[in-house]
Design brief:
The protein is mostly helical. It has one domain. It contains 4 helices and no strands. Helix 2 packs across helix 3. The mean pLDDT is about 85.
């Protein structure tokens, strides 16, 4: 039991909590960017409310609480 829990916890840490070496993004950040691109949101397009983007991410790619997505979006926007 102890070994299987350690294996699971390490896979969660490596798979979700640590940023990827290739681009420095966590999976939630990658899902947000993919959803925004899929919605056609670019820098030269009219703005949309963040609730629409969060709903898109939650509905298609990240079936967890919305606070994780909002938090990740805010952290992506801050320098």
């Amino acid at each position: 039991m102890k070994t299987s829990y350690l294996d699971y916890s390490m896979s969660v840490i490596v798979g979700r909590a640590l940023p990827d070496v290739r681009d420095g993004l966590k999976p939630v950040h990658r899902r947000i960017l993919y959803a925004l691109n899929d919605m056609g949101l670019k820098f030269n397009k009219p703005h949309r409310k963040s609730a629409r983007a969060v709903g898109e991410v939650l509905g298609k790619y990240h079936p967890h609480g919305d606070m994780a997505v909002y938090d990740a979006m805010v952290r992506m926007a801050q320098p």
